[in-house]
């Protein structure tokens, strides 16, 4: 029995020795005329100042020497961010007339984007945002809007007014394949109660949603840029006043939807 045990152990050592020796033999037989090195790269979050892309041509590269200065850029940093939003200008010369049907309707003018050199260009009203999270998870998010009541300096409100958006389109100038078309509503209504959010984008696809996006309302190419955001004021409960301007704050929010 002892002899058998010793023989088995010797045999095992011989097998192990042969297994250990094989890699060395392979290495020694490698092609002498070539050798391999390694390449490596690591990524960190971008903390620089974002620049809006030209909404009239989102594929146009941003000129760092002549960036867009109006609308202003959100100075906060982070991979999930609303970058810039145009103000909605419904005009200063709207005449007080009898209500048409059950109320009054006013259209927002096309936006005017301005570059650092003073150049101004007509543009659709828009919201630019980004989702550049790069953590091996899906870039799922929502984009919503809330609006406060239109109020003048005498604290008079346009009661139950609504903002109606149409011809809504989402563009990614770098890669349109990142746009989830089924997650964008072509029309949407925002109540001006300050609390009710309206969802414009629901990005729930696993393989989309990365990059910088422009949510635009209308297009200068088909003359819908000045007819795609409308303010509806119901006649019931409202008496229009010319004493001062009515203003509202529209807040756009991008939120994680993973």
From TrEMBL:
Residues 35-256 form the WxL domain. Residues 1-28 form the signal peptide. Pfam families: WxL. InterPro entries: WxL_dom. It comes from the Bacteria. The keyword Signal applies. Residues 31-75 are annotated as: Disordered. The lineage of its organism: Bacteria, Bacillati, Bacillota, Bacilli, Lactobacillales. Keywords: Signal. This is WxL domain-containing protein.
